[in-house]
Design a protein that fits this description.
The protein is an all-alpha fold. It has two domains: about 110 residues; about 140 residues. It has nine helices and no strands.
């Protein structure tokens, strides 16, 4: 890893850890600010890496963890600024970010040449929509988890906000699927092929649709609603960071 990049990544990760410490001490006002600052520092590190390698962080596990740490932190930090109730989910959010930091530390920071299929503007749209989706899903999961420990009225209000964030996530996930289909048509001559990543991404979309339908149709307990929201994030996380690296499909390592 180049020294400037390494220093920036370490500094950004340090901001995340400070945010995590504040979250667990319940000093929630400052958590989003520290996380957002860390995301901006990581973005600078990504820019340094991009300039040095001549390509974006799209391929290796290290690159995808790095770019996802940046995007997740940015979305969460921005959410805390736009919606103060999002701060209540800081414990789960910073736990996820901290876990990803530790994971990234054990991956190879080297790079590989990008395939020719990545030279398409729809890839940028596809990736961006996916990053925002996962970030909004993390915000929703954090708020849903926190709502369990609140008093009844405040807990219900927080859970309602979590559903709103999940709806935003659902919209971005839908846009991700559409942009991905357009990219796939240009890259491989087909819109959809049911490869493992496409399949599990669609399963995630179906789970969100089912969750919204179940909430509107049945009287669900607070715990079940929370479990569905967190379940969406867990499945999305496994799809983003698991499937591409165990699959031999063209999507391999291409989240």
């Amino acid at each position: 890893m180049m020294a400037p990049e390494g220093l920036l990544v370490a500094a950004g990760g340090g901001c995340y850890l400070v945010g995590a410490g504040l979250a667990w001490r319940k000093r929630l006002v400052w958590v989003g600010k520290w996380v957002l600052a860390g995301a901006l520092i990581l973005a600078t590190g990504i820019a340094v890496r991009w300039f040095a390698n001549g390509q974006g962080p799209f391929l290796t596990l290290y690159e995808i963890l790095l770019s996802s740490l940046c995007s997740l932190g940015f979305v969460f930090g921005l959410a805390c600024s736009l919606d103060p109730s999002a701060r209540q989910g800081a414990r789960l959010a910073t736990l996820v970010l901290g876990t990803m930091l530790i994971w990234m530390a054990f991956t190879d920071p080297g790079s590989r040449p990008l395939p020719a299929t990545y030279g398409n503007p729809w890839l940028w749209v596809h990736v961006a929509m996916g990053k925002v989706f996962l970030g909004c899903s993390l915000v929703a999961a954090g708020m849903g988890f926190a709502s369990i420990f609140e008093q009844q009225n405040s807990g219900e209000a927080l859970l309602a906000r979590a559903w709103q964030w999940l709806m935003v996530a659902f919209l971005f996930h839908s846009a991700m699927l559409i942009a991905g289909a357009v990219w796939a048509q240009d890259a491989w001559g087909r819109y959809w092929a049911w490869d493992p990543l496409e399949t599990w991404a669609f399963v995630t979309w179906l789970l969100m649709a089912f969750a919204f339908h179940a909430k509107a149709t049945f009287r669900l307990s607070h715990v079940i609603e929370t479990a569905m929201i967190i379940g969406v994030f867990v499945l999305a996380f496994l799809t983003f960071f698991g499937v591409p690296f165990v699959s031999i499909a063209p999507h391999k390592g291409a989240v």
